[in-house]
Protein backbone atom coordinates (compact mmCIF):
# COMPACT_ATOMS: atom_id res chain seq x y z
CA UNK A 1 0.00 0.00 0.00
CA UNK A 2 1.29 3.44 -0.94
CA UNK A 3 0.30 6.38 1.27
CA UNK A 4 0.67 10.10 0.68
CA UNK A 5 0.24 12.61 3.50
CA UNK A 6 -0.64 15.88 1.84
CA UNK A 7 -0.13 19.55 2.79
CA UNK A 8 1.76 18.67 5.97
CA UNK A 9 4.47 20.39 7.96
CA UNK A 10 7.58 18.19 8.04
CA UNK A 11 10.14 17.99 10.83
CA UNK A 12 12.77 15.98 8.98
CA UNK A 13 14.79 14.94 12.05
CA UNK A 14 16.96 18.05 11.94
CA UNK A 15 14.63 20.98 11.30
CA UNK A 16 11.12 22.02 10.37
CA UNK A 17 11.10 22.32 6.58
CA UNK A 18 10.09 25.80 5.41
CA UNK A 19 7.10 24.84 3.25
CA UNK A 20 4.33 22.30 3.52
CA UNK A 21 4.98 19.04 1.69
CA UNK A 22 3.34 15.95 0.30
CA UNK A 23 5.18 12.89 1.68
CA UNK A 24 4.72 9.57 -0.14
CA UNK A 25 5.79 6.23 1.34
CA UNK A 26 5.13 2.51 1.41
CA UNK A 27 6.62 -0.58 3.05
CA UNK A 28 9.84 -0.16 1.07
CA UNK A 29 10.51 3.25 2.61
CA UNK A 30 9.95 6.95 1.95
CA UNK A 31 9.40 7.46 -1.77
CA UNK A 32 9.17 11.22 -2.23
CA UNK A 33 8.93 14.56 -0.44
CA UNK A 34 7.31 17.00 -2.83
CA UNK A 35 5.90 20.54 -2.62
CA UNK A 36 2.31 20.45 -1.43
CA UNK A 37 -0.13 19.99 -4.25
CA UNK A 38 2.20 17.95 -6.47
CA UNK A 39 0.43 15.07 -8.19
CA UNK A 40 2.51 12.39 -9.89
CA UNK A 41 -0.55 10.46 -11.00
CA UNK A 42 0.01 7.34 -8.89
CA UNK A 43 -3.18 5.35 -9.26
CA UNK A 44 -2.98 3.37 -6.04
CA UNK A 45 -2.01 6.12 -3.61
CA UNK A 46 -4.12 6.62 -0.48
CA UNK A 47 -4.13 10.35 0.34
CA UNK A 48 -4.34 11.57 3.93
CA UNK A 49 -4.95 15.25 4.65
CA UNK A 50 -2.07 16.55 6.76
CA UNK A 51 -3.23 20.15 7.06
CA UNK A 52 -2.84 21.42 10.62
CA UNK A 53 -0.47 18.56 11.42
CA UNK A 54 3.27 17.87 11.54
CA UNK A 55 4.97 14.73 10.26
CA UNK A 56 7.95 13.51 12.29
CA UNK A 57 10.29 10.55 12.03
CA UNK A 58 9.16 7.79 14.35
CA UNK A 59 10.48 8.54 17.84
CA UNK A 60 13.22 6.48 19.49
CA UNK A 61 13.50 5.81 23.23
CA UNK A 62 17.19 5.42 24.07
CA UNK A 63 16.56 3.45 27.28
CA UNK A 64 13.80 0.88 27.66
CA UNK A 65 13.41 -2.59 29.15
CA UNK A 66 11.62 -5.28 27.20
CA UNK A 67 9.07 -7.59 28.79
CA UNK A 68 7.03 -9.13 25.97
CA UNK A 69 5.52 -8.28 22.61
CA UNK A 70 3.16 -6.03 24.57
CA UNK A 71 6.15 -3.76 25.23
CA UNK A 72 6.71 -3.31 21.50
CA UNK A 73 3.00 -2.74 20.88
CA UNK A 74 2.75 -0.14 23.64
CA UNK A 75 5.77 1.75 22.32
CA UNK A 76 4.35 1.80 18.81
CA UNK A 77 0.97 3.02 20.02
CA UNK A 78 2.60 6.21 21.24
CA UNK A 79 4.76 6.81 18.18
CA UNK A 80 7.94 5.23 19.56
CA UNK A 81 8.95 3.12 16.58
CA UNK A 82 12.39 2.02 17.87
CA UNK A 83 13.30 1.05 21.42
CA UNK A 84 16.89 0.78 22.62
CA UNK A 85 16.70 -1.98 25.19
CA UNK A 86 19.22 -1.97 28.04
CA UNK A 87 18.99 -5.54 29.34
CA UNK A 88 16.93 -8.58 28.37
CA UNK A 89 17.40 -12.24 29.18
CA UNK A 90 17.34 -15.14 28.63
CA UNK A 91 18.74 -15.20 25.11
CA UNK A 92 15.78 -17.16 23.76
CA UNK A 93 13.32 -14.53 24.93
CA UNK A 94 15.31 -11.77 23.26
CA UNK A 95 15.63 -13.77 20.03
CA UNK A 96 11.87 -14.29 19.85
CA UNK A 97 11.25 -10.56 20.30
CA UNK A 98 13.82 -9.71 17.62
CA UNK A 99 11.93 -11.97 15.22
CA UNK A 100 8.73 -9.92 15.45
CA UNK A 101 10.10 -6.42 16.09
CA UNK A 102 9.73 -3.66 13.54
CA UNK A 103 6.74 -5.00 11.67
CA UNK A 104 3.02 -5.70 12.00
CA UNK A 105 2.46 -2.72 14.26
CA UNK A 106 5.34 -3.45 16.64
CA UNK A 107 8.27 -1.19 17.44
CA UNK A 108 11.74 -2.22 16.30
CA UNK A 109 14.42 -2.90 18.91
CA UNK A 110 18.12 -3.11 19.61
CA UNK A 111 19.59 -4.76 22.72
CA UNK A 112 22.80 -5.76 24.50
CA UNK A 113 21.27 -8.89 26.00
CA UNK A 114 22.79 -9.28 29.46
CA UNK A 115 24.52 -6.32 31.14
CA UNK A 116 27.87 -6.72 32.91
CA UNK A 117 27.40 -6.27 36.65
CA UNK A 118 29.44 -6.61 39.83
CA UNK A 119 29.09 -9.34 42.45
CA UNK A 120 27.34 -7.33 45.17
CA UNK A 121 25.66 -4.28 43.64
CA UNK A 122 21.93 -3.68 43.49
CA UNK A 123 21.62 -5.39 40.10
CA UNK A 124 23.06 -8.63 41.52
CA UNK A 125 19.71 -9.14 43.27
CA UNK A 126 17.84 -9.83 40.04
CA UNK A 127 20.26 -10.17 37.09
CA UNK A 128 21.48 -13.74 36.35
CA UNK A 129 24.79 -14.84 37.80
CA UNK A 130 26.38 -15.19 34.35
CA UNK A 131 26.28 -11.39 34.10
CA UNK A 132 28.70 -10.99 37.01
CA UNK A 133 32.20 -9.94 35.96
CA UNK A 134 34.61 -9.83 38.89
CA UNK A 135 38.02 -9.19 37.30
CA UNK A 136 39.64 -7.98 34.07
CA UNK A 137 40.43 -11.52 32.91
CA UNK A 138 36.72 -12.27 32.62
CA UNK A 139 35.90 -9.15 30.58
CA UNK A 140 36.83 -10.47 27.14
CA UNK A 141 34.91 -13.73 27.71
CA UNK A 142 31.80 -11.77 28.76
CA UNK A 143 31.95 -9.55 25.67
CA UNK A 144 32.57 -12.56 23.42
CA UNK A 145 29.47 -14.25 24.86
CA UNK A 146 27.35 -11.14 24.28
CA UNK A 147 28.56 -10.89 20.69
CA UNK A 148 27.80 -14.57 20.08
CA UNK A 149 24.20 -13.88 21.10
CA UNK A 150 23.90 -10.90 18.74
CA UNK A 151 24.43 -7.95 21.07
CA UNK A 152 24.06 -4.61 19.32
CA UNK A 153 26.14 -2.87 21.99
CA UNK A 154 27.56 -3.70 25.41
CA UNK A 155 25.92 -2.55 28.64
CA UNK A 156 27.93 -2.18 31.85
CA UNK A 157 26.65 -1.27 35.31
CA UNK A 158 28.97 1.16 37.07
CA UNK A 159 28.56 1.63 40.79
CA UNK A 160 30.33 4.04 43.12
CA UNK A 161 33.46 2.55 44.74
CA UNK A 162 32.43 0.18 47.51
CA UNK A 163 28.87 -0.31 46.23
CA UNK A 164 29.47 -3.79 44.82
CA UNK A 165 29.90 -3.05 41.12
CA UNK A 166 32.86 -3.99 38.92
CA UNK A 167 36.07 -2.33 40.04
CA UNK A 168 37.87 0.20 37.88
CA UNK A 169 40.25 -2.24 36.14
CA UNK A 170 37.32 -4.53 35.31
CA UNK A 171 35.19 -1.71 33.91
CA UNK A 172 38.08 -0.54 31.78
CA UNK A 173 38.73 -4.07 30.53
CA UNK A 174 35.06 -4.45 29.56
CA UNK A 175 35.13 -1.19 27.59
CA UNK A 176 38.39 -2.14 25.89
CA UNK A 177 37.06 -5.57 24.92
CA UNK A 178 33.85 -4.08 23.52
CA UNK A 179 35.77 -1.51 21.49
CA UNK A 180 38.00 -4.24 20.07
CA UNK A 181 34.80 -5.78 18.67
CA UNK A 182 33.64 -2.40 17.33
CA UNK A 183 30.81 -2.19 19.87
CA UNK A 184 29.80 0.90 21.77
CA UNK A 185 29.50 0.74 25.55
CA UNK A 186 26.51 2.06 27.48
CA UNK A 187 27.24 2.67 31.15
CA UNK A 188 24.57 2.68 33.83
CA UNK A 189 25.82 5.55 36.01
CA UNK A 190 23.29 6.87 38.51
CA UNK A 191 25.65 8.41 41.07
CA UNK A 192 28.54 10.85 40.93
CA UNK A 193 31.02 8.11 41.84
CA UNK A 194 29.70 5.80 39.13
CA UNK A 195 29.90 8.63 36.59
CA UNK A 196 33.57 9.15 37.42
CA UNK A 197 34.38 5.45 37.10
CA UNK A 198 32.57 5.13 33.76
CA UNK A 199 34.41 8.20 32.45
CA UNK A 200 37.74 6.74 33.54
CA UNK A 201 36.83 3.47 31.79
CA UNK A 202 36.10 5.26 28.50
CA UNK A 203 32.40 4.41 28.16
CA UNK A 204 30.63 5.93 25.16
CA UNK A 205 27.07 6.52 26.40
CA UNK A 206 26.02 7.35 29.97
CA UNK A 207 22.50 6.46 30.98
CA UNK A 208 20.86 8.15 34.00
CA UNK A 209 21.88 11.35 35.71
CA UNK A 210 22.61 11.63 39.44
CA UNK A 211 19.99 13.07 41.77
CA UNK A 212 21.11 15.79 44.13
CA UNK A 213 24.04 18.11 43.51
CA UNK A 214 24.63 18.75 39.80
CA UNK A 215 27.59 17.25 37.99
CA UNK A 216 30.67 19.35 38.62
CA UNK A 217 32.19 21.44 35.85
CA UNK A 218 35.18 19.11 35.43
CA UNK A 219 32.94 16.08 34.86
CA UNK A 220 30.83 17.98 32.34
CA UNK A 221 33.94 19.10 30.49
CA UNK A 222 35.32 15.55 30.45
CA UNK A 223 32.05 14.33 28.95
CA UNK A 224 32.43 16.88 26.16
CA UNK A 225 36.14 16.22 25.63
CA UNK A 226 35.50 12.45 25.43
CA UNK A 227 32.59 12.89 22.95
CA UNK A 228 30.51 10.99 25.49
CA UNK A 229 26.73 10.91 25.11
CA UNK A 230 24.20 11.45 27.90
CA UNK A 231 20.84 9.68 28.23
CA UNK A 232 19.66 11.26 31.49
CA UNK A 233 16.33 9.36 31.88
CA UNK A 234 14.80 12.38 33.58
CA UNK A 235 11.40 10.68 33.79
CA UNK A 236 12.89 7.92 35.94
CA UNK A 237 14.89 10.33 38.09
CA UNK A 238 11.81 12.51 38.62
CA UNK A 239 9.85 9.44 39.71
CA UNK A 240 12.52 8.36 42.18
CA UNK A 241 12.81 11.86 43.65
CA UNK A 242 9.03 12.16 43.90
CA UNK A 243 8.73 8.83 45.72
CA UNK A 244 11.17 10.16 48.31
CA UNK A 245 9.56 13.59 48.51
CA UNK A 246 12.76 15.27 47.32
CA UNK A 247 11.99 17.73 44.55
CA UNK A 248 15.26 19.54 45.23
CA UNK A 249 17.25 16.44 44.27
CA UNK A 250 15.51 16.33 40.89
CA UNK A 251 16.18 20.03 40.38
CA UNK A 252 19.87 19.11 40.59
CA UNK A 253 19.40 16.54 37.82
CA UNK A 254 17.83 19.17 35.59
CA UNK A 255 20.78 21.50 36.22
CA UNK A 256 23.17 18.71 35.23
CA UNK A 257 21.40 18.30 31.89
CA UNK A 258 21.46 22.07 31.38
CA UNK A 259 25.22 22.08 31.95
CA UNK A 260 25.79 19.14 29.61
CA UNK A 261 23.75 20.77 26.86
CA UNK A 262 25.56 24.10 27.26
CA UNK A 263 28.94 22.34 27.07
CA UNK A 264 27.98 20.71 23.77
CA UNK A 265 27.45 17.15 25.03
CA UNK A 266 25.02 15.14 22.91
CA UNK A 267 21.88 14.49 24.97
CA UNK A 268 19.43 11.77 23.92
CA UNK A 269 15.86 11.09 25.02
CA UNK A 270 15.49 7.90 27.07
CA UNK A 271 13.09 7.00 29.85
CA UNK A 272 14.10 3.66 31.46
CA UNK A 273 10.57 2.45 30.69
CA UNK A 274 9.97 -0.72 32.71
CA UNK A 275 7.37 -2.73 34.57
CA UNK A 276 9.77 -4.44 36.98
CA UNK A 277 8.22 -4.88 40.46
CA UNK A 278 11.58 -4.23 42.13
CA UNK A 279 12.56 -1.18 40.08
CA UNK A 280 13.14 2.14 41.88
CA UNK A 281 10.06 3.39 40.04
CA UNK A 282 8.02 1.99 37.16
CA UNK A 283 7.87 4.03 33.96
CA UNK A 284 5.20 3.44 31.29
CA UNK A 285 6.37 2.44 27.83
CA UNK A 286 5.62 4.87 25.03
CA UNK A 287 3.75 7.65 26.76
CA UNK A 288 6.73 8.38 29.02
CA UNK A 289 8.91 9.49 26.10
CA UNK A 290 6.58 12.42 25.45
CA UNK A 291 7.05 13.48 29.08
CA UNK A 292 10.80 13.00 28.73
CA UNK A 293 10.82 15.47 25.83
CA UNK A 294 9.00 18.01 28.00
CA UNK A 295 11.55 17.54 30.79
CA UNK A 296 14.44 18.00 28.36
CA UNK A 297 12.89 21.31 27.33
CA UNK A 298 12.55 22.21 31.03
CA UNK A 299 16.30 21.52 31.30
CA UNK A 300 17.10 24.04 28.59
CA UNK A 301 16.89 22.19 25.27
CA UNK A 302 14.84 23.90 22.60
CA UNK A 303 11.86 21.92 21.31
CA UNK A 304 13.83 21.29 18.10
CA UNK A 305 16.81 19.99 20.10
CA UNK A 306 14.50 17.73 22.10
CA UNK A 307 13.00 16.32 18.89
CA UNK A 308 16.49 15.69 17.51
CA UNK A 309 17.27 13.88 20.79
CA UNK A 310 14.51 11.36 20.00
CA UNK A 311 15.11 11.07 16.25
CA UNK A 312 18.24 11.92 14.25
CA UNK A 313 20.67 12.14 17.18
CA UNK A 314 19.66 8.74 18.52
CA UNK A 315 19.92 7.26 15.03
CA UNK A 316 23.43 8.67 14.68
CA UNK A 317 24.67 7.54 18.11
CA UNK A 318 23.25 4.02 17.81
CA UNK A 319 24.37 3.57 14.19
CA UNK A 320 20.89 3.37 12.65
CA UNK A 321 21.32 5.22 9.34
CA UNK A 322 18.03 3.97 7.89
CA UNK A 323 15.80 5.91 10.30
CA UNK A 324 15.51 9.02 12.47
CA UNK A 325 15.05 11.33 9.48
CA UNK A 326 12.44 11.91 6.78
CA UNK A 327 14.32 11.51 3.51
CA UNK A 328 13.70 9.52 0.32
CA UNK A 329 14.98 5.97 0.69
CA UNK A 330 14.85 5.84 4.49
CA UNK A 331 12.62 3.55 6.51
CA UNK A 332 9.01 4.74 6.64
CA UNK A 333 8.66 4.87 10.44
CA UNK A 334 6.58 8.02 10.87
CA UNK A 335 4.56 9.94 13.45
CA UNK A 336 1.79 12.36 12.47
CA UNK A 337 0.71 14.81 15.20
CA UNK A 338 -1.66 17.75 15.38
CA UNK A 339 0.06 21.08 15.93
CA UNK A 340 3.71 22.07 15.71
CA UNK A 341 6.02 20.38 18.25
CA UNK A 342 8.91 22.68 17.26
CA UNK A 343 6.83 25.49 18.78
CA UNK A 344 5.34 23.51 21.69
CA UNK A 345 6.93 20.17 22.52
CA UNK A 346 3.67 18.96 24.11
CA UNK A 347 2.26 18.62 20.60
CA UNK A 348 4.09 15.28 20.21
CA UNK A 349 1.33 13.80 22.36
CA UNK A 350 -1.42 14.89 19.94
CA UNK A 351 -1.04 11.74 17.88
CA UNK A 352 -3.07 11.42 14.71
CA UNK A 353 -1.32 8.40 13.18
CA UNK A 354 1.75 6.17 13.50
CA UNK A 355 3.37 4.14 10.73
CA UNK A 356 5.95 1.37 11.07
CA UNK A 357 7.57 0.27 7.81
CA UNK A 358 4.82 2.15 6.00
CA UNK A 359 1.97 0.28 7.70
CA UNK A 360 -0.44 2.17 9.98
CA UNK A 361 -0.32 1.14 13.65
CA UNK A 362 -3.58 0.16 15.31
CA UNK A 363 -3.61 2.40 18.39
CA UNK A 364 -6.46 0.93 20.43
CA UNK A 365 -4.17 0.38 23.46
CA UNK A 366 -3.20 4.05 23.52
CA UNK A 367 -6.68 5.35 22.78
From TrEMBL:
It holds the Pfam family Amidohydro_1. GO terms for molecular function: hydrolase activity, acting on carbon-nitrogen (but not peptide) bonds. InterPro entries: Amidohydro-rel (IPR006680), Metal-dep_hydrolase_composite (IPR011059), Metal_Hydrolase (IPR032466), Metallo-dep_Hydrolase (IPR051781). Coiled coil: none annotated. Residues 54-360 form the Amidohydrolase-related domain. The lineage of its organism: Bacteria, Bacillati, Actinomycetota, Actinomycetes, Mycobacteriales. This is Imidazolonepropionase. It comes from the Bacteria. SUPFAM superfamilies: Composite domain of metallo-dependent hydrolases, Metallo-dependent hydrolases.
